[in-house]
Amino acid sequence: MSKIYDVLIIGAGASGLFLASNLHGLEVAILEKNSCAGKKILASGGGKCNITNRYISSQNYLGDEEFIAKALLNLSFRDVLEFFAELKFKEIKQNQFFCSSSARDVLGVLLRSCEQNKAKIFYNCDVKSAAKISNSKNCEAGVCGDLSKSQNEIFEILTHNGQKFRAKSLVVASGGLSYKALGASDIGYLVAQNFGLQVTKTAPALVGFTVQKDEFWFKNLSGVSLNAEISLNTKNILGLKFKDQDKPNSDKKTALSERKFSADVLFTHKGISGPAVLSASLFWSKGAVRINFLPNFDTRCLSRTKKQLSTILPLPRRFTLEFLKANELEDRAFGEYNEEQKAKILKLFDYPFAPAGTFGFERAEVTKGGVSTDEIDENFECKSVKNLYFIGEVLDVTGMLGGYNLHFAFTSAKILANHLNLRLP
């Protein structure tokens, strides 16, 4: 109980473990709520861990673009691959890097690195609170009055089972609220709020959409998958901050007023999911999205054949027939429909619908929102509380599907590691 660590990290996930792996010559402790580390790492990429992406850009994230862009300069996808050099990765699925063996091997590299750096992990430590207290050791040694306030204060962290930990620096790497079954916790937000920091409203992200009555026909297609393009307007999305976005004739505002996501969509008993939907969900808060179910099909082909729609359209037959049924149409050649009916069919190329909501935190891969980056400096230190740091998903920075969130977790941890290695004795 009397031991004072140089650095105490809340959370043995991607950012917390990567930080401890890059700290040298410091006494480091990690407090993990679960009985094992890195549960979300093990679940990522379908168990293959999509660890990074060849094309990392602030455009792949929701949050303060300037803050994100500056941070991303400090770690490239090559740097990530070099850290995990003992493993092999395959570049697939839109330039994502997946581990050739398993996510468990990725976690193994991180745990071995932590062990080599003598970082100690305490499992089953569910943090209850964190506060700053006076360092009584300094006062007992008679140097209390010679130190600045920040030097004479330490952090005291209490757990729900009554354990007490103390440290010179506290790092919150506790992640977000998604996947409660994997040990998700709101402790990071509570710590931030207890220290007076702003926390942006959280919401599920990288998650499927539930549907309203007009799209109940989606549910009849459970299990059907197809390639599509989803677009949505992102001008007024809460938490999306772009430099100069409010200036007239801003090129950046124009370029980012609409986002498009081309990938598979998957129909489920609850609505619609799949990679394209998950990425779109990051930038959606309310209102309509639009789906092009035939992004690679020329509409002129419809008038050049007498074949039935279910035959000519490069779509799963089950989908085409369900779409026709929902629009009270029979399966015919396109030329046999009247103009009103043709207009309904052409909605396949621009189908608008307003999601009822999302599948929620239980099915979301990540959490958007979190500790405001306005509260954090370039080293991920809290501007108003010395030696308090926030890294990874707990921050109001959320990436698209494709290795972006793990990459930011590593980036924030690496920046902080460089800072602490220089700052602490």
**What class would the helix/strand composition place it in?**
alpha+beta
The 3D shape can be described as elongated
Q: Helix proportion of residues, in percent? A: 25-40%
State the total count of DSSP E strands: 21
Q: Unreliable stretches, pLDDT < 50, 5 or more residues?
A: 236-256
Total helical segments? 13
Question: What's the gyration radius in Å?
Answer: 25 Å
Kindly report the average pLDDT value. 91
Strand-residue proportion: 15-25%
Note the gap between the termini.
Answer: 22 Å
Characterize the biggest β-sheet.
7 strands, mixed
Walk me through this protein's architecture.
This protein is α+β, with helices and mostly antiparallel strands. 26% of the residues lie in helices and 24% in strands. The protein is built from 13 helices and 21 strands. It has helices at 14-21, 39-43, 65-72, 77-83, 103-116, 136-140, 187-194, 251-255, 275-283, 309-312, 317-326, 339-345, 404-423; strands at 4-10, 28-31, 50-53, 61-62, 89-92, 96-99, 120-122, 127-134, 153-159, 164-172, 199-205, 209-210, 225-233, 258-267, 271-273, 289-292, 351-353, 357-358, 366-371, 388-390, 398-399. The strands form five sheets. Strands 1, 2, 7, 8, 9, 10 and 20 form a seven-stranded mixed beta sheet that branches. Strands 17-16-13-14-15-12-18 form a seven-stranded antiparallel beta sheet. A hairpin with a 4-residue loop joins strand 9 (153-159) and strand 10. The protein is elongated and about 90 Å long. The two termini are 22 Å apart. 44% of the residues are buried. Residues 236-256 have low confidence and may be disordered.
